[in-house]
């Protein structure tokens, strides 16, 4: 959000004062902005909707908002693909894709992000057979530091493509993205409450049984709000049972049973502002890691009443993806945006470290470049491509220089 001379992210924990904020109406405008920054040797950071909890977009130079790069460029029903302008908000994508008979294979908890912002940090939903949104990218166009545009895909500049799908805006400004989609589909949503031990006892079976399964463990009730989503047919009907009463704040995560088109089922509303830490751990570490975090909260941080979210993701081949090369469980911690979080998150990060967790790029963590190099097997390949495409570092800011290069 831009107010006067300052820009603030969604949770309010990142504030910066850009020298200028540009909102180019088209790709030519992006090229002009990048050429000007390169000529001045100043920085330029792209921003989607500012839903990251870390200073990825913060800059004292040029903040380039992609808000005017909206909408579908074209759809290809035969291939089930669509080319989409990079700034398109996910919530503005569902209906036009649906009209073309298409839908995203998976989505996260909300649909407020821009498409480019979502892929650039590895934003994901849940499902053991499903990758992050970036894994569905089959091509994208970058405006490079040189001011040239570059189209990349599995057959055009494949080494750049592999990396550019999750690259934190460090290779260039993405202007359009081609996505592999599915034929439009319906989902059947069910939510219910289970005690913590009961949830863990049936966890593996639940994950295997549903296309999407996730839960929130609530520290106040020591119980879990469970959610499954499965494909539904046009004639399928819900049982129509009223939502079961849930204790305390767990009710926030429960919905009446329902069937609807996927893009209407996936997103939830997140009205209360919070800060968040999330790590991707090897799937087999998920239950132990969760138990240790639960113990930590009960023993040392009982004042934190926000839940832990537990989701799954399949292994992928994107060098900076937190799910690179391994079946994954993601575990997220939250704290109200008006309350302190640093001590709690630092203690939790020590647990994630022991499980060789990889931090979500858009969420709070304290990992150093040295640690990241250790947990990302293709860290060096990313660095080589980034350095070759942007030798002067115009797409870096102080946070990224420290995170990636220190
Ligand atoms: C309420 C809430 C719920 C969330 N739920 C989930 C969830 O379910 N799953 C999950 O994985 N994450 C989740 N997140 C995290 C969020 O999805 C990511 O931080 C995402 O990157 C934010 O998208 P954005 O459009 O706001 O991008 P921004 O935060 O604005 O930017 C993110 C990155 O993308 C880059 N970028 C943006 N546009 C471009 C472009 N055109 N070209 C190149 N780089 C670009 C930016 O420079 C930056 O590095 C959630 C966050 C919030 C606040």
Number of domains: 2
The distinct bound ligands, ions and cofactors come out as: flavin-adenine dinucleotide
- The percent range for helix content is 25-40%
- What spatial form do the alpha-carbon principal axes imply? globular
Number of strands: 21
- CATH domain topology of the largest domain: Vanillyl-alcohol Oxidase, Chain A, domain 3
The CATH class label of the largest domain is Alpha Beta
Class by alpha and beta content: alpha+beta
CATH-wise, what's the superfamily of the largest domain?
Answer: FAD-linked oxidases, C-terminal domain
Distance between the termini: 29 Å
Low-pLDDT parts are none
Widest sheet: strand ordering:
17-14-16-15-19-20-18-21
What is Rg? 21 Å
Task: Give descriptors for this structure.
21 strands; 5-stranded antiparallel beta sheet; binds flavin-adenine dinucleotide; 12 helices; Uridine Diphospho-n-acetylenolpyruvylglucosamine Reductase, domain 3; 8-stranded antiparallel beta sheet; 406 residues; alpha+beta; 2 domains; Vanillyl-alcohol Oxidase, Chain A, domain 3
